[in-house]
Amino acid sequence: MPVKKRRLPEAEDPNHSHKITRISRPQTRVVRPLCSERPFSSKKCVSWFHEYIGADKVFGPDAMERFCEDIGVEPENVVMLVLAWRLEAVNMGFFTKDEWVRGMTSLQCDSKERLQSKLDHLRSELNDSTAFRNIYRYAFDFTRDKHQRSLDMDTAKAMLSLLLSRTWPLFPLFYQFLEQSKYKGLNKDQWFNVLEFSRTIKPDLSNYDEDGAWPVLLDEFVEWKKSWTLC
């Protein structure tokens, strides 16, 4: 990863979703241009990619900054996470040529103007329960240090804030719990179950089953929340 600090997208408001057993790839939904529009050009799409790469042939953080400026979106905006998901990007802050061409072809975007016209469509993915669930699950591996199996706690808190803060009433307490907990990060099972917990357990915890198959992390959160309420 580059020396400069990676920046995470900023939150927007996704709908509720439900647990799934595996991550699904984004559906390839090619949006055909109107008759009055010129056809999508693969050659133009590739040329657009090459506008951002330097002598090192890498579309990295510096290129990403310029790309975001060109399309009028802050790098921290959640729409950039959705775009990365649609491109099936592997590493945060980087796009490969194959990722770019595949994803932009599915979006039928070969210029900044065409991508700008699709930003509302990309944001709407967060309002689809299935798409949001897959974006949430994708975010774990996308933002994880590839040398680690878990997501470090600072990144986990930032991404949870991005994805759940506006839809989960208990999120402020859960964030506070993570800050004072012994945990240094979240593994994939914990990450996935936090979403399920946020979608199925009532804010007053009245439907929480102590004998359920929740990770110990969430059992401890429930105990902490109850003791916090009694104080």
From TrEMBL:
Gene Ontology CC: nucleus; spindle; ubiquitin ligase complex
Cited InterPro entries: DCN-prot, DCN1-like_PONY, PONY_dom
Pfam families in the cross-refs: Cullin_binding
GO molecular function, a single term: cullin family protein binding
BP term (GO), one: protein neddylation
Every DCUN1 domain range: 40-226
Record carries keyword Amino-acid biosynthesis: no
Subcellular location: Cytoplasm, Cytoskeleton, Spindle; Nucleus
Keywords: Cytoplasm, Cytoskeleton, Nucleus, Phosphoprotein
Role: Contributes to the neddylation of all cullins by transferring NEDD8 from N-terminally acetylated NEDD8-conjugating E2s enzyme to different cullin C-terminal domain-RBX complexes which is necessary for the activation of cullin-RING E3 ubiquitin ligases (CRLs). May play a role in DNA damage response and may participate in cell proliferation and anchorage-independent cell growth.
Assembly with partners or alone: Part of a complex that contains DCUN1D5, CUL1 and RBX1; this interaction is bridged by CUL1. Interacts (via the DCUN1 domain) with the unneddylated cullins: interacts with CUL1, CUL2, CUL3, CUL4A, CUL4B and CUL5; these interactions promote the cullin neddylation and the identity of the cullin dictates the affinity of the interaction. Interacts (via DCUN1 domain) with UBE2M (N-terminally acetylated form) and probably with UBE2F (N-terminally acetylated form).
Name of the protein described by the UniProt record: DCN1-like protein
Native organism: Gouania willdenowi
Lineage: Eukaryota, Metazoa, Chordata, Craniata, Vertebrata
